[in-house]
Design goal:
Elements lengths: L5 H10 L8 H9 L11 H25 L1 H16 L4 H26 L4 H9 E4 L8 H7 L7 E4 L3 H15 L7 H15 L13 H8 L3 H15 L13 H12 L18 H16 L18 H8 L1 E2 H4 L19 E2 L1 H10 L4 H13 L1 H8 L5 H12 L6 H15 L2 H9 L1 E4 L9 E4 H20 L2 H15 L7 H26 L5 H32 L4 H9 L3 H6 L5 H20 L9 H11 L25 H15 L17
Parallel strand pairs: 3-4
Antiparallel strand pairs: 1-2, 5-6
Length: 685
């Protein structure tokens, strides 16, 4: 929208007057004269500037709308124009879509301002509050407004359901209006409007189950409607992204758009122009975040204790967990209109390849990482697809890079990454694949130049580094627990572990032994402060827990993959002194027994060697270890249960995901929300 806000100020001043607007055509005429938005929509900064300009008028509107009911008229106009767009031709959209976009922007700015200053139920009343004319009931109120026919004094009334009609109109824009260069701004404003209405959750600690906008969009949506909206929003997310000022005309962009069109379902009319459109990343992210918000609220299935009422459920969770790959479902003639909430068939189909590649491209973004988590955890078809990809390094390398350099990542983002790694590590075949996937170099790993390293070794190195930093600085139990669980799952399949990573594994064990000793010394002193003593005992317990599992990981790798881990054996024999301190603790003696068997066997072989070898001569020792491993007496080792960890979502996932997803939306939606009114989370701005 043009920086000149004169027309917009005049329109808002007219709406915020005590006088009721009686001519809907005049109101629409004012909207059509607003400066048109560009295809880029407003930036967050531009919206903030608008808020400062319009703020005084909007404050008046809050108080005066109770008398004028002008907001109801604006909403009715919005609903009417949204419905009209679905009836006009493709050629007419170029003229009408920009005007409706401006109308949605005005309504969005007003609703956001209201929601920041009143409960959501109060906004609902404002949206449905209208003037009622008792005489001549046969004549519609719309006709009276248009004709200026007011022979009797009106009274205030509530037109129940107007808020639901507004939500339905916005969803219809997203689902039924073709996406093209002339309608992208319209689609973006429809998504933004829904985000603002649902954003009422940021100002209240009440459950979303009681919020009228969540009720309208989630509980009043059929499974078929949820499938269609989810699919369209994911298709928006997959749109070709043009950089600033760039027009997407390359062959690759046309190919991407062509694939996208092939997976469009018949509910949306498309034409040749759709294959030429280009989107901003802002639009793609908004669409994705709306999916994530709808999916992560109202997650608990509820019903009456006596089962007399139909249980409520979130159809968007069903949609996101049951869609399938378009390339596999094309021959099955999927008819999503016939699906019901009780059916377990696919909700819709979309290109898994495009989804996978788009996620891989933007894994530094919270919203892409959250989507990946949701799909791996909930959608078994997508999980199986990922596990069979031959280019799994495209997914894992960006994830490991974020984990290696987490300074710009939130703790929630790191949690999501670690859970994703844990879910992937549960698969035996994948663990073998990443052990065989070799990387010529890793440019972002700054501690040491790593060349010809396996993807599994890199993953081990990054996870060990994360644990060490956490033990030293952050001391977040959830973080190191997930790191260790992933390493434990991988340890069954360690093959040719890189010498540096094997060294880091023993070095971390040594660090924990020293830390354990220091803590025991401190606890051996007379501590007058009970709180300090309790804190030390807690820290000691955590250190012992990490050390125990690290030793189990080493033991598991040697027990199951001794023949393929000469570097790990070499490090263990070279740093055998670490075991001296560990051996004194009875909690570790069962595991240390196996490690002693390994160390003593290879030390004995070295002594028997006709050619004396120095442990510092790596290449020669590694060859000797590999040869000696063929006669290792595995029967001397004690058997331990196989290390196997599986991810289980918390019992109350909303406590984590709702603040997280809204914090992402606040940062990345390019919508101005005033942080002073937000209570769901707080940022250190």
């Amino acid at each position: 929208m043009d920086t000149n806000t004169f027309e917009l100020e005049n329109l808002v001043a007219k709406l915020s007057s005590l006088d009721s607007i009686t001519d809907v055509d005049s109101l629409w005429n004012d909207v059509t004269h607003l400066p048109k938005m560009s295809s880029r929509c407003l930036s967050r900064g531009q919206e903030e500037n608008l808020d400062q300009v319009l703020g005084p008028l909007l404050k008046q509107f809050i108080t005066k709308n109770c008398s004028s009911a002008n907001l109801f008229l604006l909403v009715q106009l919005c609903i009417e124009k949204c419905e009209d767009l679905q009836k006009i031709s493709i050629s007419e959209l170029g003229t009408e879509a920009p005007n409706v976009s401006s109308l949605l922007l005005v309504l969005r700015l007003i609703c956001r301002h209201f929601l920041e200053r009143m409960p959501v139920e109060a906004l609902q009343r404002h949206l449905t509050m209208c003037k009622h004319f008792p005489e001549d009931e046969s004549q519609s109120q719309t006709d009276k407004r248009q004709k200026g026919d007011y022979n009797s004094a009106p009274r205030m009334a509530i037109d129940a359901g107007t808020d639901a009609k507004l939500c339905k109109a916005l969803v219809s824009i997203i689902c039924k209006v073709p996406l093209s260069n002339c309608t992208i701004t319209l689609h973006s404003e429809a998504v933004s409007m829904l985000l603002v209405l649902l954003g009422s959750k940021m100002y209240s600690d009440r459950s979303a189950d009681e919020n009228p906008f969540y009720i309208n969009l989630i509980f009043k949506s059929s499974q078929s409607e949820a499938n269609i909206l989810t699919k369209r929003l994911l298709q928006n997310y997959l749109c070709p992204i043009a950089s600033e000022g760039e027009i997407t005309t390359s062959a690759s962009s046309f190919d991407l758009a062509s694939k996208l069109l092939q997976s469009f379902s018949p509910f949306a009319e498309v034409n040749n122009e759709v294959s030429k459109f280009n989107c901003t990343k802002q639009f793609c992210d908004k669409s994705l975040l709306l999916v994530e918000i709808l999916t992560n609220h109202c997650t608990q299935v509820t019903g009456s204790p006596d089962h007399s009422k139909i249980e409520q459920y979130n159809p968007f969770r069903v949609a996101i967990s049951s869609f399938v790959d378009f390339s596999l479902s094309a021959s099955t003639n999927l008819d999503q209109s016939n699906l019901t909430s009780g059916q377990s068939s696919a909700s819709f189909s979309i290109s898994f390849e495009m989804l996978y590649l788009r996620i891989c491209e933007y894994l530094e973004d919270d919203q892409a990482t959250l989507l990946l988590y949701m799909l791996l955890h909930k959608n078994s078809a997508f999980l199986n697809y990922v596990l069979t990809r031959t280019d799994i390094d495209k997914l894992l390398l960006p994830i490991l890079k974020v984990l290696y350099s987490p300074k710009d990542a939130s703790s929630h983002h790191l949690y999501m990454i670690l859970i994703i790694l844990l879910i992937l590590s549960e698969d035996t075949i994948l663990n073998n694949v990443i052990s065989e996937t070799m990387l010529p170099q890793v440019s972002w790993f700054s501690e040491r130049v790593l060349t010809d390293i396996s993807l599994a070794s890199l993953m081990v190195g990054v996870l060990l580094r994360t644990i060490q930093i956490n033990v030293t600085q952050m001391k977040d139990k959830y973080l190191h627990t997930n790191c260790l669980a992933t390493l434990a799952n991988m340890s069954n399949h360690f093959q040719n572990l890189n010498p540096y990573c094997a060294q880091r594994l023993l070095a971390l064990s040594s660090h924990l032994v020293k830390k354990q000793t220091k803590l025991n010394v401190k606890l051996g002193k007379n501590l007058s402060d009970e709180a300090t003593e309790n804190a030390l005992r807690t820290e000691l317990s955590v250190v012992e827990e990490i050390l125990r599992l690290l030793l189990e990981i080493i033991n598991n790798a040697l027990t199951n993959q001794l023949l393929h881990n000469s570097a790990l054996v070499h490090c263990l024999v070279y740093d055998k002194h670490i075991l001296d301190a560990i051996r004194l603790n009875h909690n570790y003696q069962d595991i240390v027994y196996n490690l002693d068997v390994v160390v003593n066997f290879y030390l004995g072989k070295l002594k028997q060697s006709s050619q004396p070898l120095s442990l510092s001569n790596c290449d020669s020792v590694l060859q000797f270890i590999k040869k000696s491993s063929k006669v290792f007496p595995f029967s001397h080792l004690h058997k331990f249960p196989e290390l196997k960890f599986r991810y289980c979502e918390e019992e109350e996932p909303e406590d984590f995901f709702i603040p997280y997803v809204w914090s992402i939306a606040y940062r990345n939606c390019a919508i101005f929300w005033n942080i002073d009114f937000v209570t769901l989370f707080k940022f250190a701005l």
